[in-house]
Amino acid sequence: MNARRVRAGLRGWGGVGAMAVVCVLAAVFALLLPVAQSRVDGGRDAGARGVAHGEQARAEECEAPEDQSLSPSSGPQDGANVQAIKDRGYLTVGVDQNSYRWGYRDPNSTSETTQLEGFDIDLVHAIADRIVGKRENNVRFRAIPTIRRIPAIQKGEVDMVVRTMTINCARLKDVAFSSPYFETGQQVLAPRKSDITGYDESLAGKRICSATGSTAYDALAADKKDGDLVGSADIRTTVPNQLDCLVRLQLGEVDAVVTDGALAASQAAQDPTVELKGEPFTDEYYGVAMKKDSDDLVRRVNQVLVDYREDGWQQSYDTWLAKGLGKSEGPPPVEYR
Predict the structure, then answer these.
(1) What is the CB neighbour count within 10 angstroms for residue 104?
(2) Residue 93: beta bridge partners?
């Protein structure tokens, strides 16, 4: 395992919500026009399985995609892309609104207008404050499904996407990424009473759900093809939003979900009848995604991240994620191309 990886323990999650919360978030808020870690630690089966699967989940034509972003000092940070945002007066960001503790609307909020909140949302506000300035309405959120993240950037619908989006080689062909702000890995989520034990032979004959266009599906498909996933596992169930997999699991339409361990842990917190099974089997990093060739904006966001890692990241982690993910050693280390 690469020594640069940052580890944090993934501990058991308790139930803090009910299925009704999940369904309301998924069904109701999806209809609304939006107004608005560290890597988990654990052992590895069969020696370096985690590394092998991590490399399969990425495209083979590049190495260490998380290290391919531009240094803040490599050029201008206030070019045409950044200036256009400043002139407009607000940042437009694609986010999730149904990922508990990452980007979601709290149904128990006493505010007349339920605002988005979570770890990703805190980062968005930090970026907006530093690019546009600290003022009211300096960011406009656009709720987008997993499969729409890249098209939304390419079509100019948003300036960037901050939505638990893994940096990988395939995506680097379509969008630019910031340096990484969080580390995680793919993991299995299944009912507590299930005989599934992890990403292993216990998935034989099981129906597995993943989000369309996700690195989870890419890993499943690659492993199925290469024989690293038990042949009888059924990976045909895909959904537009990852949260829909949890609903399918609760309805008994699938037997397991594969997604980022950090997201899976948040879903386990919503529903005490499900739990994480086994250890993560990939190494992945979240980054802020932006349009290709928007170099000045990439550099500016990377500068924001330099400051945010020192003043803001840990506080946000403690607020949203520490309860379930345990003590953090901090954000992942950064290297630039």
Answers:
(1) 25
(2) 141, 160
Q: CA-to-CA distance for 246 and 240, rounded, in angstroms?
A: 12
| Collapsed DSSP state (helix, strand, coil) of residue 117 | strand
Task: Give the residue with greater pLDDT, 43 vs 202.
Answer: 202
Q: By C-alpha distance, which of 236, 242, 294, 295 is closest to 264?
A: 242
Chain centroid to Cα 114, Å, comes to 22
Closest among 53, 46, 56, 45 to 279, alpha carbons compared: 45
Q: Rounded to whole angstroms, how far apart are CA atoms 308 and 232?
A: 45
Integer angstrom CA distances of residue 198 from 209, 234, 243, 255:
14, 15, 20, 12
Tell me what the mean pLDDT of segment 178-199 comes to: 97
Q: What is the reported pLDDT for 324?
A: 80
The CB-side HSE value for 18 (13 A sphere, CA atoms) comes to 3
Note whether 39 and 5 are within 8 A (CB): yes
Q: How confident is the model at residue 330 (pLDDT cuts 50, 70, 90)?
A: very high
Residue matched to tokens 């099974």: 277
What stretches of the chain show up as alpha helix (H) in DSSP? 19-27, 49-57, 80-88, 119-131, 149-154, 169-172, 215-226, 243-250, 261-270, 295-310, 313-320, 322-325
What predicted TM-score, i.e. pTM, was given to this entire model?
0.81
Distance of CA 225 to the CA centre of its chain: 25
Tokens of 204: 């034989």
Question: What is the average pLDDT value for the chain, to the nearest integer?
Answer: 84
Q: What sign results for the dihedral spanned by CA atoms 221, 212, 234, 190?
A: positive
Tokens of 221: 């498909």
